[in-house]
Amino acid sequence: MRTEDDLLTVRHAVRAASQELGFSLVDQTRVVTAASELARNALIHGGGGALFIEPVREITGTGLRLVVKDDGPGIKDVEGALTDGFTTGAGLGHGLGGAQRLMHSLEVHTAPGAGTTITAVRWLDR
Questions:
Q1: Under a CB-based contact definition with an 8 Å cutoff, are residues 1 and 51 in contact?
Q2: Which end of the chain has the smaller Cβ count within 10 Å, N or C?
Q3: d(Cα 48, Cα 4) in Å, to the nearest integer?
Q4: 121 and 107 in contact (C-beta within 8 Å)?
């Protein structure tokens, strides 16, 4: 993900993966919206990055895992970044917290100068 055009590609790829797994239209929209927010953050704050879309099949259910990685400066205040209204840029500060609410789980791994990896999962039928 290096350009604004890549964000459209992200949305299409995530929608296709969520459809293939059988997510409802509402849940597809949740996952696509979360992916879009995470990808936009990686582009704006991390200078670009990569998105990995992984189906998850476990005994307890089926889901979709999104892993977004960037090589940016890292997130100095993760707790703050997950709070609505927190922003280090020109946005409204709803992206990371909003993505967390749309997914069943969201983990942030970051270090100053070492980039950020965010892993988010939404489960089918939960």
A1: yes
A2: C
A3: 10
A4: no
- 10-residue mean pLDDT profile of the chain (126 residues): values are 95 98 97 96 94 96 97 88 62 70 96 94 91
| DSSP secondary structure code for residue 73 in this structure | S
- The answer to whether the beta carbons of residues 114 and 65 sit under 8 Å apart is no
Sign of the torsion formed by the C-alpha atoms of 7, 32, 69 and 47: positive
111 Cβ neighbours under 8 A, 6+ residues apart: 74
- Tokens 């039928």 belong to 125
Q: What pLDDT score was predicted for residue 78?
A: 85
Q: 18, 10, 76: which is closest to 38 by C-alpha?
A: 10
Q: Quick one: which H or E segment has residue 41?
A: helix 25-46
Chain segment 42-76, per-residue pLDDT in tens: 999 999 999 999 999 999 899 999 999 999 999 88
**Which residues are bridge partners to 56 per DSSP?**
63
